[in-house]
Amino acid sequence: MNGLRIGAAMLAMGFLWAGGAAAQEIVRHKIPDSDFPIAQAVEVPAGKTTVYVSGAVPSVVDENAEKNSLAAYGDTKTQTESVFKSIEKTLDGLGLKMGDVIKMQVFLVGDPAKAGEMDFAGFMEGYTQFFGTQAQPNLPSRSVVQVAGLASPGFLVEIEVTAVRP
What we know:
By secondary structure, this protein is of the alpha+beta class. It has helices at residues 2-22, 70-73, 76-93, 120-127, and strands at residues 27-30, 39-43, 50-56, 101-109, 141-147, 157-164.
């Protein structure tokens, strides 16, 4: 009988422990002494579901421009805004929000108007409309790299994200 009680007590403690772990929140570590709008690191507790969203590319903003041209898709800021709107729509369809994004990989092509250098400032102008705002303060960990090219010669921006179900 004592063995049964001990077993039941251990089972109950296991459920309590698992419930406590499942109730843990995602922890976003800020960069010390910085207001740069990314997380230095993000901790995801055990039991959370991660969702990996494929790379999103910009939509055409000028139907009259030559197909697959920079003019068709806009500058880096315009493309960044377009890509984040696409990601937002994808996440919404999955029952998620931009605030659920924990990791981001950004691929920027060098802008010919910027001597072939990536337009990081233009990217940040678009990014800060979606992350680190009063309405959506959650910041992901993030990497930004310059790449030689993307699937279309008109693309300057492609972004992949990882989100966690709340």
